[in-house]
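Journal club prep — side note

Before the paper discussion, L.F. wants everyone to see what a predicted structure for a comparable chain looks like in token form. Sequence:
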Amino acid sequence: MSSYSRETARNRKKRRRRRRRNQVNYKPIILIAVLLLIMIAVVVLVRSCGNHDVGTIDLQKNASAIYIKDSGEIVYGISESFDENVFDEKELEEQIEKEIDQFNQVEASEEDAMSLDTFSVGDGVAEAVFDFATEQDFVSYMTLYNRANDFVKQEDEQKIYEFYMNNVAEYDGDGERVVVSLKNKEKVSLAGTNGTLLIVTGKYDIQVDGEITYISENCKVNEDGIVETSEEGQSFIVFNL
């Protein structure tokens, strides 16, 4: 075979290899990419139709959550189970809207200081997330509307608060209560701290934009920095924004 013929044969083989490469079936690759996009979309859809968020807290069934922003705004979420046989969704939503209107007319520090962020009902659970323009408005709501009063009882001439948020120096309860430093785990008396004091009774998840410095011994802090208060009794949190 002449050199010309051998060269021609090699060129033909190269052209065939190029054609085979160009004919690679990319459909399986495209299909996999499409399926991945669909899976992501489904996850996002399920997430958006599920529990509401309060800050980065995923509001769970029969739970309450508080998110305190460094701007002074507060987000408050609550989830409660109900008996579907005696529950009227429309009636509850109307009651919530009426309560918000009443609060804004009577107690609010500014126009529309309280608003309903989200409300949903499903699977025997009602969830609502509220926005408050200021700490003052949130405290007013929790003490005047969400609670019968701002303390449970009086012991040894000291108030036992069910809900409280104010400067530590203004607290008129037990200043000798032990709290734990998140920085070094040292135990100190509440009176030996400074910052804003938050007291809640019962189970809450609490997030603060600023720095949480002390918590009472019955609290826990999870890996995301969310404080989980005790289901029973009072929980104390000291923080700075």
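L.F.'s comment for the group: The chain is about 30% helix and 35% strand. Keep this in mind when we get to the figures.
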